[in-house]
C-alpha cells in the first residue's frame, strides 16, 4: 500500500489523548485521477462505472468515517461526518467550507507553491495530495475534538479494486431503487448511477457496488442516505470476508492487500495486518455505525450546505468515545418523513426515557422463515421488555424486514425499528397500540441494539438517546438501508 506522511503534520496540534484508545479515519476520495494525476480511462469511468468524466468530482472527500477502538477492547464505534457539513477548515485556507472541500483547497494551494520547483507531474501530484490529506485530518480533528491515530484513503479506482477483490457483495435495501443516468449537457451537470435494484438482498459486482455507495438522486434524504449506504457496504464487506475465513487467515489477508495496494493510501506508521489481529472487535462485526447530526440547511455562495452545532457534535463524540454523560440536546433535522398518524405527536429528540420505562406496545411478528423463527424473535423481544403478540408466516415474496405500527405506538415502533436498521412506518391497518414486525431476512440483530430504557441497556458506548442522523447501521451481517 502507498505510505503517507500526512499524519505527522496533523499530529502537531492534535487534541490530547485521554486514554489508550485508537481512532482511525477512513477517507473516500471522489477523484477520477490516478496517483500520478492522470485521468482514469474514459471508457472505464464513464461507460462501466457511470461515474462521469475526469473533469468532475475534483478532490472532494465524499466519505469521512472515524472508527473509535476503545482501550478496553469493547465495541467499536464508527461515526460518519456528512460531506456537506459547513465547518471551519484547518490546514486549507482557514475559512468556512463544506468539510469535503478541505482536501481540494489545500491540494490546490500546495500545487501553486510547488509549481516553480521543477517537479514532474507525478511528483507534484503526490506532494500536493499530501497537503490535502493533512488538511482533511486536521479539519476532522478540530471539528470532533479528537486525535486521529491512523488513516486510510481510497479513491474511485481503489474502491473498485477492493469491491472487485471481494465480489459479489450482498447488500439489502428497504425499498427498490431506480437511478437512471442523466446525460451531461451545457446547462445540466448530469448525474445518476444507472443502479436498479429490488427491495431486499442483492448480490453486487464491483461496478454495481460503486453505484450503490455513490447514489444520491432519488433518495429521500440525498447525501444523508448515501452515508448510510457507505456504512452498510463496509458492514457487508466485513461480513463476507469473515464468512470466507479471510479475516482469520494472515496469508489470505496478505493476498487481498496485494490486490488493492496500488490505490489505497495509509499512514507510514500503520501495519494493517498486525493491527487487524490486535483489534478482534473491528474484524469480528462488533461495530456500530452512526451519522453525526446536522441542524439544518442553508445556501452559501450559491451552494447548499449542512449547518451543524460544533459544541453539540463534540459533546456527542465525548459521550461515545470517553463515556461522558449524554448531553441534553435540541431537535435535529429528521432523516426521513415520520409517516405518523394525524394527531400522533412525535416524541422530543431530547427526551431520554427513564431507566424504568419499558415498551408498552404489543408486537406481532411474521417471518419469511416461518412461525418458528417468529416465535424465537418474539421470545428475544420479550426479554427486552416488549409485550408479545401474534406470530405467523410472512409471504415468501417479502424481500425486506419492515416495522409498521398503529396509532399511539410510534415511540415503541421507532425503538424496535432501530434494532433492525429500518424505519418505522404508520399503517391505518394496524390496530392502535400494536406494532407489526415482518422479518424477511434470517439474521440476528446486534445484542447491543436494545430499546432505549429497556432492561439490559448498560453499554456506555451506546448511541441510544443521542440525536444521530437516522438509525444506526450495525455490522455483523447484511444491514438493510434506504
UniProtKB/TrEMBL annotation:
InterPro entries: LytR/CpsA/Psr_C, LytR/CpsA/Psr_CW_biosynth, LytR_CpsA_psr
Domain LytR/CpsA/Psr regulator C-terminal span(s) in chain numbering: 366-426
Compositional bias per record (Low complexity), positions renumbered to this chain: 332-343
Region (Disordered): 332-358, 445-470
Residues annotated as domain Cell envelope-related transcriptional attenuator: 60-241
Family the entry assigns: Belongs to the LytR/CpsA/Psr (LCP) family.
NCBIfam families the UniProt entry points to: lytR_cpsA_psr
Protein's recorded name: LytR family transcriptional regulator
Taxon lineage: Bacteria, Bacillati, Actinomycetota, Actinomycetes, Kitasatosporales
Amino acid at each position: 500500500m502507498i505510505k503517507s506522511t500526512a499524519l505527522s503534520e496533523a499530529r502537531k496540534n492534535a487534541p490530547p489523548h485521554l486514554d489508550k484508545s485508537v481512532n482511525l479515519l477512513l477517507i473516500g476520495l471522489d477523484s477520477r485521477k490516478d496517483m500520478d494525476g492522470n485521468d482514469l480511462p474514459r471508457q472505464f469511468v464513464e461507460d462501466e462505472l457511470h461515474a462521469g468524466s475526469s473533469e468532475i468530482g475534483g478532490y472532494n472527500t465524499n466519505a469521512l468515517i472515524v472508527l473509535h477502538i476503545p482501550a478496553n477492547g469493547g465495541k467499536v464505534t464508527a461515526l460518519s461526518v456528512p460531506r456537506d457539513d459547513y465547518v471551519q477548515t484547518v490546514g486549507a485556507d482557514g475559512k468556512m467550507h463544506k468539510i469535503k472541500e478541505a482536501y481540494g483547497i489545500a491540494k490546490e494551494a500546495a500545487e501553486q507553491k510547488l509549481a516553480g520547483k521543477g517537479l514532474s507531474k507525478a511528483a507534484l501530484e503526490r506532494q500536493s495530495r499530501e497537503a490535502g490529506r493533512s488538511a482533511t485530518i486536521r479539519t476532522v480533528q478540530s471539528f470532533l475534538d479528537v486525535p486521529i491515530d491512523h488513516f486510510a484513503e481510497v479513491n474511485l479506482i481503489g474502491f473498485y479494486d477492493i469491491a472487485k477483490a471481494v465480489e459479489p457483495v450482498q447488500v439489502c435495501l428497504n425499498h427498490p431503487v431506480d437511478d437512471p443516468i442523466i446525460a451531461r449537457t451545457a446547462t445540466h451537470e448530469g448525474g445518476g448511477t444507472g443502479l436498479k435494484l429490488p427491495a431486499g438482498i442483492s448480490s453486487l459486482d464491483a461496478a454495481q457496488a460503486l453505484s450503490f455507495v455513490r447514489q444520491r438522486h432519488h433518495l429521500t434524504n440525498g447525501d444523508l442516505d448515501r452515508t448510510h449506504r457507505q456504512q452498510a457496504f463496509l458492514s457487508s464487506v466485513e461480513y463476507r470476508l469473515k464468512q470466507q475465513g479471510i479475516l482469520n487467515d494472515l496469508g489470505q489477508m496478505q493476498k487481498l492487500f496485494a490486490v488493492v495496494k496500488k490505490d489505497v493510501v495509509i499512514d507510514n506508521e500503520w501495519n494493517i495486518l498486525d493491527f487487524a489481529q490486535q483489534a478482534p472487535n473491528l474484524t469480528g462485526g462488533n461495530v456500530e455505525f452512526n451519522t453525526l447530526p446536522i441542524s439544518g440547511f442553508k445556501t452559501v455562495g450559491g451552494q447548499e450546505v449542512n449547518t451543524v452545532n460544533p459544541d453539540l457534535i463534540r459533546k456527542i463524540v465525548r459521550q461515545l468515545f470517553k463515556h461522558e454523560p449524554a448531553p441534553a440536546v435540541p431537535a435535529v433535522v429528521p432523516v426521513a418523513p415520520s409517516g405518523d398518524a394525524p394527531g400522533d405527536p412525535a416524541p422530543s429528540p431530547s427526551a431520554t426515557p427513564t431507566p424504568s420505562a419499558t415498551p408498552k406496545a404489543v408486537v406481532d411478528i411474521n417471518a419469511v422463515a416461518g412461525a418458528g423463527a417468529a416465535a424465537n424473535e418474539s421470545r428475544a423481544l420479550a426479554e427486552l421488555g416488549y409485550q408479545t403478540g401474534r406470530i405467523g408466516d410472512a409471504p415468501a415474496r417479502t424481500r425486506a424486514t419492515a416495522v409498521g405500527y398503529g396509532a399511539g405506538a410510534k415511540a415503541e415502533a421507532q425503538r424496535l425499528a432501530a434494532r433492525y436498521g429500518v424505519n418505522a412506518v404508520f399503517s391505518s391497518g394496524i390496530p392502535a397500540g400494536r406494532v407489526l414486525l415482518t422479518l424477511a431476512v434470517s439474521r440476528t440483530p446486534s445484542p447491543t441494539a436494545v430499546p432505549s430504557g429497556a432492561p439490559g441497556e448498560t453499554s456506555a458506548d451506546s448511541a441510544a438517546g443521542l440525536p444521530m442522523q437516522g438509525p444506526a447501521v450495525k455490522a455483523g451481517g447484511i444491514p438493510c438501508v434506504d
